[in-house]
Hints:
The structure is a single chain. This protein has helices at residues 2-23, 91-101, 150-154; strands at 30-40, 64-78, 81-89, 107-118, 122-130, 159-167. It is α+β, with helices and mostly antiparallel strands. A 6-stranded antiparallel sheet has the order 1-2-3-4-5-6. The mean pLDDT is 77.
Amino acid sequence: KGRFWMRMLKTSAATAFAAAVLVSSASDASVSGYVEASYNRNLNSPPAGFTPSPWRGYDQDFNTFTLNNAHVAISTEYGGSEFTLELDFGSNAMMDSLLSTGTADILSIQEAFIETELGSSFGLKMGKFATSVGVEVLEAPENPVFTHGYLFNYAMPAPHTGLLGTYAEAT
């Protein structure tokens, strides 16, 4: 049952976003992104066939160049709501999808959500979105360290799928 509702929320957010893009003019949409690549060197010079620690999430490949992430974010507003879609491609996308779905896909939907304000104090976000907790984030340019720590990989939920309500006290 839970998986069904998660799929429904993801599909709803993606469908609503696609509809908003089709309805609104192209000049209203905002597109941004970045590309991140790295060369990770293992100074221990491990033997051929060495398997890295399973505790290393985002930096398991060593002594090689890696396309960590090609990230594209598209957002638009329509009818008082904001629609956002963020896609990742590369080794980070494989790890992100593995942590959230259990399968390692080279293309990952990092976020697909609808956000709207309900009056002057309340807000609602529906779909798949990044966590609002913790110091580390998925986007490399915003992350304070090069790679992610153990807690980010295995203890903190990076993506959430569902509804998020917010309240801001009127000033």
